[in-house]
Amino acid sequence: MRMAVGLDSSVNLERVIKQIVQEGYHFAGRYYCQTDHPKLLTPSEARAISAAGVYIVALWKNGYPSSSGYFTYHTGLEDAQMAYNYAKMIIGQPAATPIYFAVDYDAPLEDARGCISEYFRGIVEGIKAATERHGVQYDIGIYGSASVCETVMNQFTDITYAWLSASPGWSDSREFEKWNLKQGPGTTVSGIDIETVVSNGNGGGFKIG
Q1: Where do the Rv2525c-like glycoside hydrolase-like domain residues begin and end (predicted)?
Q2: In the predicted model, is pLDDT for residue 202 greater than 90?
Q3: Full domain range(s) for residue 21
Q4: Residue-wise burial string across 135-159, b where 16 or more C-beta atoms lie within 10 A, e elsewhere
Q5: 8 Å CB contact between 6 and 55
Q6: Which residues pair with residue 83 across a beta bridge?
Q7: What pLDDT does 1 receive?
Q8: What pTM was computed for the model?
């Protein structure tokens, strides 16, 4: 298995892309969201990252998916549609590459089996519906703890990518063998805070022209 090291950032990387390349990062995790927030991947940033030879990994994180109250079937449908539209219409993300969807809290097993699974049922159905309308198919990934990733992926075969969180203090810190990306420790690049990420060689990165 060929491993690669990348990063995850909540800010625009255009001004530090040369340093990212020099420090040996092969891919950058960047965000899709509904609002004009610094974490939002812009088309110009996507072009700059791609032109530098660095792959992009897309993570949808709209609002605060950090408690059980966020996760409903209807929110999943809405998030799927918005993420699909941003990927296809704004960024030009290539087909057959994943959009990851975040579960950003220490979710107990009952949440993973309940509201979070309902949310991902909405994600799966929403992506399928958008694909039927527009003809471009995107894969689906999940970001979360080992327990959340395992539980949700066991229920939905359409979810084929896992980004394993390494948030300190989360109760479920055991290994999950089917991960594609695994979060690592934080550091900085030219003063920008990042988190390191390891790929198993199939993290779902893409470039745009």
Answers
A1: 19-193
A2: yes
A3: 4-199
A4: ebebbbbbbbbbbbbbbbbebbeeb
A5: yes
A6: none
A7: 47
A8: 0.96
Report the number of distinct structural domains present in the chain: 1
Quick one: three-class SS letters along 3-63? CEEEEECCCCCHHHHHHHHHCCCCEEEEEECCCCCCCECCHHHHHHHHHCCCEEEEEECCC
**At 88, which helix (H) or strand (E)?**
none
Residue 136 resides in a domain: yes
Report the CATH number at residue 14: 3.20.20.80
- CA–CA dist 200, 26 (Å, integer): 12
Q: Which of 187, 206, 182 is closest to 5 using CA atoms?
A: 182
| Structure confidence by residue, pLDDT tens digits, 96-146 | 999 999 999 999 999 999 999 999 999 999 999 999 999 999 999 999 999
Please give the Cα distance from 170 to 11 (Å, whole number): 24
pLDDT of residue 35: 81
In the numeric block, which tokens belong to residue 108? Answer: 């107990």
Q: Which residues pair with 31 in a beta bridge?
A: 40, 59
Q: Are strands 192-199 and 159-164 parallel, antiparallel or unpaired?
A: unpaired
Mind listing the pLDDT tens digit for each residue in 2-30? 679 999 999 999 999 999 999 999 999 99
Distance CA 95, CA 140 (A): 12
At 94-110, the pLDDT tens digits run 999 999 999 999 999 99
